[in-house]
Amino acid sequence: MQESHPGQKAWEGFRCVLFDMDGVLYDSMPHHAIAWQKSMAQFGITMTAADAYATEGARGIDTIRQFFRQQKHQDISLDEAQKMYDVKTHIFHAMGDARIFPGVKELMQAITDDGLSVGVVTGSGQRPLIDKLLVDFGDYLVREHITSAYDVKRGKPYPDPYLQGMRKAGYADPRQAIVVENAPLGVRAGKAAEMFTVAINSGPLPDKALTDEGADVLYPSIEAFLADWPEVIGYRKVTCCLYI
User: Fold this and answer.
1) Are strands 177-181 and 16-19 parallel, antiparallel or unpaired?
2) Cβ atoms 11, 239 nearer than 8 A
3) Which of 27, 73, 133, 177 is deepest in the core (most CB within 10 A)?
4) How far apart are CA 210 and CA 157, in angstroms?
């Protein structure tokens, strides 16, 4: 074990795990893809299922403004984008609840058993979905540890959401946080925040779409990550004496 030196601050290891919501906790992306296509068509905007997956993780209003700018060659206000997002939200909720991915609760239990806290960092601005997190994961998650579109001005792929999630969990060193993501923009945000980033490829994107964004490790499912959790937490024990 390395000894510390004067003026150096010891890294105390992983302290929190920050989960994305859609596509990581819930198998909800197929519903979101349909809702995006149907809602945007009402406003003359073409959006494919591939577009929905590629832009996942960003704030919905930012995605709408981006597509409007690209296809209509004009900017719209946040209020106008919010009205369009409300249509998408209505269509999504009419499709019913998405299932929780197998292994999610077991992984959260393992995380808390090892003394780490659980947080959720989502680009969603849908309050019913945020409230549902506490119903489904209330044994592991508190409201104060949920970061949503309402908490940041810049969403993913900027690092702001994950840095805010880390601060909400009570930590200041990004190396103390693990990010769990399924979207390229989310992986990019986690790496921009200088956090250890786990990619879960739960959708139709090629693995390369996630690894090219810098994911530290990639798994095909939460269950596969759960099986490797002891090794991940072992990484903390081996490297706990690195210094900055």
Assistant:
1) parallel
2) yes
3) 177
4) 13
Beta strands, E only, the chain: 16-19, 117-121, 146-147, 177-181, 196-200, 217-219
Distance CA 168, CA 119 (A): 8
Tell me the three state secondary structure of residue 43.
Answer: coil
Q: What is the mean pLDDT of the chain?
A: 89
Amino acid at 162: Y
Find, among 199, 187, 171, the residue nearest to 11 by Cα. Answer: 171
pLDDT tens digit sequence for 98-139: 999 999 999 999 999 999 999 999 988 778 878 899 999 999
Q: Round to the nearest angstrom and report the end-to-end CA distance of the chain.
A: 16
Q: Which residue has the tokens 């309402």?
A: 150
CA 132 – CA 64 distance, rounded (Å): 24
With cut-offs at 50, 70 and 90, classify the pLDDT of residue 17.
very high
Give yes or no for residue 4 having a pLDDT over 70: no
Residue that is written with structure tokens 């908490």 in the block: 151
Residues in the chain: 244
Burial of residue 173 (CB within 10 Å: 0-12, 13-18, 19+) is middle
